[in-house]
Structures are given as structure tokens and as C-alpha cells.
Write a structure and sequence with these properties.
The protein has a single domain, classed as TIM Barrel. The radius of gyration is 18 Å and the shape is globular. It contains 11 helices and 10 strands. α4 runs parallel beside α6, α6 packs across α7 and α9 packs parallel to α10. It is α/β, with parallel strands linked by helices and 283 residues long. The strands form 2 sheets. The protein has an 8-stranded parallel beta sheet. A two-stranded parallel ribbon has the order 3-4.
Length: 283
């Protein structure tokens, strides 16, 4: 299993600084994390680590390479349940992410439905919500299939934190260009069972976002759908990272994974924890 790092670890710094830090920690892989259309004031003035979807993706690849890093995935987390609007990250942005990733040989683009923020989104029935996800991913999936990339949908909402809904989304989208990214913390926090998720969808899982959650978050399960980063090291929480890791190995997973964890100490302890699991003999 390849272990990379989330490129949003040092607040209020540009992407170059984020990547330098990741390389100094000894990682070889990182993902394209924050991104959006057009220009960004924060990028121009050096306090935001955002990649433009309208930029030259080869410049991005060169920036990673300057720090000895490879891009493991392109994050395109979207809002798929609220009405489409120019200010919402949706189909248009996912399409740009697919095209950018394909141009520089990045195979995986990770997306999700997110939590709605409007009455429209909150009032959707499950069937309506799944249809909306299908509709909004239709063109990105066509583009991914044509470009040899794959969209990976991750647990980060009321649909994707439910294994039955995930199965229905996979069925309804009916695309070989659609796979899964397992986000351990999001799935557990949303009320799902990461171990059962791996047992059910193992061959479909092509990337992993690692997070552990502290015991006090247990009362929030099923009420919060996703969190950007964990604040504790892997193995220090209650999710059962060791068992999840074991199930992934049984499923034959040997791909890229990303530590979505804040703080140098927690990041390095988490990598050591995964390295320790990797070194254990298989059961």
C-alpha cells in the first residue's frame, strides 16, 4: 500500500510550502487537494494552497516533481444534491478535474455528494437524490471512460455513508469508470461500518483516505456526514483501523492511500502505525 499525504497541512501557506513540508516528512505521494475554477486572490498573495482548474495541469505536475512527489489522486469533492449554480462545485468542476488529471497521467479523481445546504437538497427523497447524483456524474463518467481515468466516489454524505445507497449508485450509474474511495473516518462518523464496507465492496475500492476518530465523537455518529481532517493519529481512536487495514489486505488492495490528518506529530505517528500494520504477517 502506498501512503501519501493530504496537501492542506500548514494553514495559510501556498501549495509549494505544503508540498515542501510533505516531502520533508519523507512522503513520496500527495494529492491535489483544494481546487476551483479561475483565479484566486489567496494564491496570488501566498496564503492559499489552491490549484486552479483552469491552469496548466503540467505546471502542477512539475511543482509536485520539484519536491520529489507524485500526484496520487485529484480531489473533486462536490455538492451534488443542491441545485446547480455557478458558485457550487459540481458537474462542470468535476469535468475539469477529469480533464486535468487525464492530461498529466493521474488516474483517480475523487468526488462525493456532500451535505446539501438548501431546502431543496434537504427535501429530496432517497430516490430523487440518487437520480440527481446519477445525472450530475453522467458527463464526468463519460469523460473519465474516454480518457482512461476513473471517478471514485467516497463516503461523505447521507447517501454515500450508507452501503445500500452506494450499491444503488453504482448500479444506476452503470459505468466501468466509477469506483470507490474508502474514507474511514467519514464512513464511521456517518453511521457506516468501514469493515463491512470493505467486505462488501472490496474490489471496487481503489483509494483510501485514512482518518481515526476519538471516542467522544461516537455520540455524533449518524448526525455528521464527513469531516475534512482528523486531529488524532491512526490507532488512537475508536474506528478500528487495524481491522480495516486487514480487510483491505484480504481484498487485495495495494493502491494509493492518503493521510487526511492534521499536525506533524499525528501525521508521522499515523504513517508509522500503517507501516507497522504492513509489516505484520497476514492472518
Amino acid at each position: 500500500m502506498k501512503i501519501g499525504c493530504f496537501a492542506l497541512n500548514t494553514p495559510f501557506t501556498p501549495l509549494d510550502t505544503q508540498l515542501r513540508q510533505i516531502a520533508e516528512w519523507g512522503f513520496r505521494y500527495a494529492d491535489v487537494t483544494d481546487n476551483s475554477d479561475g483565479a484566486c486572490l489567496g494564491v496570488e498573495f501566498g496564503f492559499t494552497a489552491l490549484a486552479s482548474l483552469d491552469g496548466n495541469p503540467h505546471d502542477l505536475k512539475r511543482l509536485f516533481a520539484e519536491h520529489g512527489l507524485e500526484i496520487s489522486a485529484w480531489c473533486a469533492h462536490a455538492n451534488l444534491l443542491d441545485p446547480s449554480a455557478p458558485w457550487r462545485y459540481g458537474t462542470a468542476q468535476i469535468l475539469k478535474a477529469v480533464k486535468s488529471a487525464a492530461a498529466i497521467g493521474v488516474r483517480h479523481i475523487i468526488t462525493t455528494e456532500g451535505e446539501p445546504t438548501t431546502g431543496f437538497g434537504h427535501q429530496l427523497t432517497d430516490a430523487e437524490a440518487i437520480f440527481l447524483v446519477r445525472e450530475k456524474l453522467h458527463e464526468p463518467l463519460r469523460a473519465a471512460a474516454d480518457s482512461g481515468t476513473k471517478l471514485l466516489i467516497e463516503p461523505h454524505g447521507r447517501l454515500t455513508d450508507n452501503a445500500d445507497h452506494v450499491e444503488r449508485i453504482l448500479h444506476e450509474c452503470d459505468s466501468a469508470a466509477l469506483g470507490l474511495n474508502l474514507d474511514t473516518g467519514n464512513l464511521w462518523l456517518g453511521g457506516g461500518d468501514p469493515v463491512e464496507f470493505v467486505k462488501r465492496f472490496g474490489p471496487k475500492i481503489e483509494h483510501v483516505h485514512w482518518k481515526d476518530m476519538p471516542a467522544e465523537m461516537a455520540t455524533k455518529r449518524g448526525q455528521i456526514f464527513g469531516c475534512g481532517m482528523a486531529t488524532i493519529p491512526l490507532g488512537a481512536g475508536v474506528i478500528g483501523i487495524g481491522e480495516i487495514f486487514s480487510e483491505l489486505k484480504k481484498a487485495g488492495f495495494a493502491g494509493h492511500s492518503t493521510l487526511e490528518i492534521a499536525g506533524e506529530d499525528a501525521v508521522l505517528k499515523s504513517r508509522d502505525f500503517l507501516d507497522g500494520l504492513e509489516s505484520q504477517p497476514s492472518a
